[in-house]
Design a protein that fits this description.
alpha/beta, Rossmann fold, five-stranded parallel β-sheet, three-stranded mixed β-sheet, 38% helix, globular, binds guanosine-5'-triphosphate, binds magnesium ion
Length: 262
């Protein structure tokens, strides 16, 4: 996403290198997605203040009710940076599984996702490493909580203006050059070892492309940044399920990659 421009040969040694930025949406899914997003946000706030918001948006969804924050790496004395609830951090918990199981006729699209052996009464403490629960949470909250936020974020990026913003750090190494006319970048960031990110990431990729078209944007390139079990080496007790989820996620990804590239 951030890379120094190589085209500006007139720069002196002391002037900042220009970084051309496409409008970019960071979609963080599950706990890991939100944690990575807030750490990146803290770095951007430290380097560019709020100016980066013209071209970069964060939007995170999690089934667990958890707040995420991060310190600016070079200024830990400053207040930690958080994700704004309701616009950057959206809870998709409160899925009443037992109600859904009782009235499958009212939700046929979700009903076919419900495994018969599912015991959970409600999704509010995360998807508990059950991928199906993450996927159900996505469809359960799509119309009310996910689609509107996705639309707002994408639309705001469509209107981001062209501007050059200098860096705030002492060395002022980079300045940002926003380029509103270029295609949108979307990064889907999550672990594929749990239930939430792992259960949602593929559908989110398709739904984001669909929403980009709906919002009248030119197009987008979607990149997945997916964390594997090795990132959770300290989670010993839950190890086998982490590996099973990651394997299943990669199988799904491979399946749809083949289907769309055939
Ligand atoms: N026991 C334990 N498990 C962890 C820890 N950190 C991560 N995990 C597990 O590793 C998996 C991946 O982490 P997350 O990114 O939170 O997963 P998620 O996408 O939010 O999915 P769920 O947490 O299952 O809803 C999750 O299933 C977590 O339960 C930890 O410190 N201790
Ligand atoms: Mg989690």
């Amino acid at each position: 996403m951030l890379s120094p421009s190589t085209t500006d040969s007139t720069e002196s040694r002391s002037s900042p290198a220009k970084v051309n930025l496409r409008p970019t949406l960071i979609l963080g899914l599950g706990g890991t997605g939100a944690r990575i997003a807030v750490n990146l946000k803290a770095r951007l706030v430290e380097a560019y203040g709020s100016a980066y918001t013209q071209s970069i948006r964060f939007l995170c969804f999690d089934t667990a009710k958890e707040a995420f924050s991060a310190y600016q790496p070079n200024h830990p004395e400053r207040s930690p940076v958080g994700l704004t609830p309701g616009s950057e951090m959206i809870q998709i918990s409160d899925v009443k599984i037992s109600d859904l199981m009782r009235s499958t006729d009212n939700n046929p699209s979700i009903a076919r996702l419900l495994p018969t052996l599912l015991q959970s009464t409600q999704i509010d403490q995360g998807a508990q490493q059950i991928r199906r629960l993450g996927r159900i949470a996505l469809f359960y909250h799509w119309s009310e909580r996910i689609k509107p936020q996705l639309k707002t974020a994408l639309t705001s990026l469509r209107h981001s203006g062209s501007q050059s913003v200098p860096g705030l750090s002492e060395d002022k190494r980079w300045s940002l050059q926003f380029n509103p006319s270029s295609r949108l970048n979307v990064y889907i960031v999550c672990s594929i070892c749990g239930g939430t990110g792992s259960g949602m990431f593929l559908d989110m990729a398709y739904l984001t492309r669909y929403m980009v078209t709906e919002c009248g944007l030119e197009g987008c390139s979607v990149t997945g940044v997916l964390l594997l079990p090795e990132a959770f080496a300290n989670v010993e007790t839950t190890g086998p399920r982490l590996r099973a989820n990651a394997y299943a996620s990669l199988l799904d990804l491979e399946h749809y990659n083949r289907a769309t590239s055939a």
